[in-house]
């Protein structure tokens, strides 16, 4: 697993670095970013995996969320992957729509052509990327997972499906019930086909109904988010959690929208939440 460093910037005593590598899961070259806190110079540190939303690359979170200061204080690495496979031979939406194809991998394993050649973001995030991070950087096997919007969906789905791999889960404005949201219906129909049975494994609401292991979940949602009612539906997730006594805290934040201004306002609380569950 060869990785090539392509940028390196000192930040709050630690380092922000970007790498490219050939992904076996995605069958293309990929880029990711890692923030290593100062403590990583002396000993392995735990890792938060951050999954970004539609249209994003590894750069949106690292440049806009302002997470490095608190990650440096807490001694936590943060890994930000890209949001889809990339490259000239990777299928894209015929109309270049922002919510399908490039930049819109939905953190699943596509089963339908032409998507099934490269769109295996689930395998990449769950297996290939952590193995690569743990082989190349001073990190422990303690992991947490978080994300925004499409990435919040990814964090919830992957965290709930792998309760022994992640000690905590958080999300900003997640697409909480994609089987019933236009973004999710469009993506799942294209990537997985029309049989809704195949969608359940990638729907946080369906997974939460079945969850046995209680990995703590924190969700922040702005009440001025223009996507809230049609696309996100975090209340459905929260209602399922309440009905079964699952430890999920949905916080409605007055006046906040869907942007990184919102994420930057609460990222410190999310990092502190995750650090509580790192041993
Ligand atoms: N029409 C918009 C939609 C794109 C958008 O809002 N992307 C969000 C994530 S939405 C859900 O996954 C985002 O994070 N954008 C990047 C950013 O840096 O803000 C558009 O095309 O802009």
From TrEMBL:
Coiled coil: none annotated. Keywords: Hydrolase, Serine esterase. Gene3D superfamilies: alpha/beta hydrolase. It catalyses: S-formylglutathione + H2O = formate + glutathione + H(+). Its EC number is 3.1.2.12. It is an enzyme of class 3 (hydrolase). InterPro entries: AB_hydrolase_fold, Esterase-like, S-formylglutathione_hydrol. It comes from the Bacteria. GO terms for molecular function: hydrolase activity. PANTHER family: S-FORMYLGLUTATHIONE HYDROLASE (PTHR10061), S-FORMYLGLUTATHIONE HYDROLASE YEIG (PTHR10061:SF1). Serine hydrolase involved in the detoxification of formaldehyde. Belongs to the esterase D family. This is S-formylglutathione hydrolase.
């Amino acid at each position: 697993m060869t990785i090539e460093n392509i940028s390196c910037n000192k930040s709050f005593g630690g380092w922000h670095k970007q790498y490219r590598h050939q992904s076996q899961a995605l069958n293309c070259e990929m880029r990711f970013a890692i923030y290593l806190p100062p403590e990583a110079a002396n000993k392995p540190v735990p890792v938060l995996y951050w999954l970004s939303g539609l249209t994003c690359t590894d750069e949106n979170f690292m440049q806009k969320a302002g997470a490095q200061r608190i990650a440096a204080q807490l001694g936590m690495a943060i890994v930000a992957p890209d949001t889809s496979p990339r490259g000239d031979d990777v299928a894209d939406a015929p109309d270049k729509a922002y919510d399908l194809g490039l930049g819109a991998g939905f953190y699943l394993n596509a089963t339908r052509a032409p998507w099934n050649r490269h769109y295996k973001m689930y395998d990449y995030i769950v297996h290939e990327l952590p193995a690569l991070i743990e082989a190349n950087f001073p990190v422990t096997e303690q992991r947490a997972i978080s994300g925004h919007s499409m990435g919040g969906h990814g964090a919830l789905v992957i965290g709930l499906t792998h309760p022994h791999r992640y000690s905590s889960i958080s999300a900003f404005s997640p697409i909480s019930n994609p089987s019933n949201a236009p973004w999710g219906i469009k993506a799942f129909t294209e990537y997985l086909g029309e049989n809704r049975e195949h969608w359940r494994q990638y729907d946080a609401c369906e997974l939460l109904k079945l969850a046995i292991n209680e990995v703590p979940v924190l969700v922040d949602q702005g009440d001025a988010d223009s996507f809230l009612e049609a696309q996100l539906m975090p209340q459905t997730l929260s209602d399922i959690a309440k009905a079964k006594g699952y430890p999920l805290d949905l916080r409605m934040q007055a006046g906040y929208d869907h942007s990184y201004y919102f994420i930057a306002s609460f990222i410190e609380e999310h990092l502190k939440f995750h650090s509580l569950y790192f041993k």
